[in-house]
């Protein structure tokens, strides 16, 4: 109940943030604006509209995590409201989890609004959205959950600017870690091999959750992939939240 109360309060605070609405409006406009580009694609209108729609959902939600989520804990410390919260029978781990699930709820609402807009736009343009498109959006949300856990972890011991920077670096490397590892396999440097292997295993491989190509081109996916990717995400989220809780438990708030 305490985690739920903190999550609801976090959602309400995020809902009052003007940055969130600005990003949401830009994301919705980009989805609708895909209609302008699609006639230039020579019969690939549906694919382009889906591609732009999925990219919009992913990019703008990540921006929300960077601009809103990275400063969640710092904002409570800066306003000194955290002292009022923790003076009650609320454990620090409950505070961390409440903040995490509150931001996830915010992202869920935003993803839902953008998904409805994308589907409505496709239907109005005479296109037929497939189930694969919805699955791709679900995995975008899973990816957002992973990135959010990273942002919460960094926000536990750094400023909003540093948290956003570190989170963006992890997000960027997370889409390239496998490629970096493959490109450096032919090098003789043991240090480079060690560094790339460390990045590959420590940084989340966010390409696991990118099903945009499969959704756009209607490529079938083995059902075991969904299960393994979800387990991977849950494991990584658990690790990041555990680190965040451990750091926050040791932090001197006086």
What are the secondary-structure elements, in order, as H or E?
HHHHHHHHHHHH
How many helices? 12
Strand content: under 5%
Our count of domains comes out at 1
Question: SS-based structural class?
Answer: mainly alpha
Looking at the structure, what is the overall shape?
globular
Fraction of residues in helix:
over 70%
Average pLDDT figure: 79
* Poorly predicted segments: none
Supply Rg. 20 Å
Distance between the termini: 27 Å
Main sheet summary:
none
Quick one: how many beta strands? 0
What does this structure look like?
This protein has 254 residues and is mainly α. It has one domain. Helix 2 packs antiparallel against helix 3 and helix 6 packs antiparallel against helix 7. The longest helix is centred in the middle third of the chain and has 33 residues. The model has no long low-confidence stretch (mean pLDDT 79).
Key features of this structure:
single chain; about 250 residues; about 0% strand; mainly alpha; 12 helices; globular
Concise summary:
This protein is mainly α and 254 residues long. The chain has helices spanning 2-15, 18-37, 45-67, 72-79, 81-86, 92-124, 131-155, 160-174, 177-183, 190-202, 212-217, 223-250.
Layout of strands and helices, then pairs:
Blueprint: H1 2-15, H2 18-37, H3 45-67, H4 72-79, H5 81-86, H6 92-124, H7 131-155, H8 160-174, H9 177-183, H10 190-202, H11 212-217, H12 223-250
Helix pairs in contact: 1-6, 2-3, 2-6, 3-6, 3-7, 6-7, 6-12, 7-8, 7-12, 9-10
């Amino acid at each position: 109940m305490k985690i739920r109360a903190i999550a609801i309060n976090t959602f309400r605070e995020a809902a009052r943030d003007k940055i969130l609405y600005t990003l949401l409006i830009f994301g919705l406009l980009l989805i609708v604006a895909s209609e302008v580009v699609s006639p230039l694609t020579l019969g690939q209108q549906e694919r382009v509209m889906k591609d732009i729609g999925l990219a919009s959902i992913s990019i703008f939600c990540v921006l929300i995590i960077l601009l809103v989520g990275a400063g969640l804990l710092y904002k409570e410390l800066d306003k000194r409201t955290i002292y009022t919260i923790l003076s009650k029978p609320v454990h620090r781990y409950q505070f961390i989890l409440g903040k995490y699930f509150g931001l996830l709820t915010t992202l869920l609402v935003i993803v839902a609004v953008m998904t409805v807009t994308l589907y409505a736009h496709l239907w109005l343009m005479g296109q037929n959205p497939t189930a694969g498109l919805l699955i791709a959006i679900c995995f975008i949300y899973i990816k957002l959950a992973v990135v959010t856990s990273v942002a919460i972890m960094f926000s536990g011991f750094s400023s909003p600017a540093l948290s956003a920077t570190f989170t963006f670096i992890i997000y960027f490397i997370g889409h390239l870690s496998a490629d970096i590892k493959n490109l450096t396999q032919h090098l003789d440097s043991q240090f480079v091999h060690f560094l790339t292997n460390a990045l590959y295993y420590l940084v989340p491989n966010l390409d696991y959750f990118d099903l945009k190509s499969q959704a756009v081109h209607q490529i079938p996916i083995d059902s075991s992939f969904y299960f393994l990717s979800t387990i991977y995400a849950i494991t990584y989220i658990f690790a990041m939240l555990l680190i965040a809780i451990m750091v926050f438990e040791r932090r001197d708030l006086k």
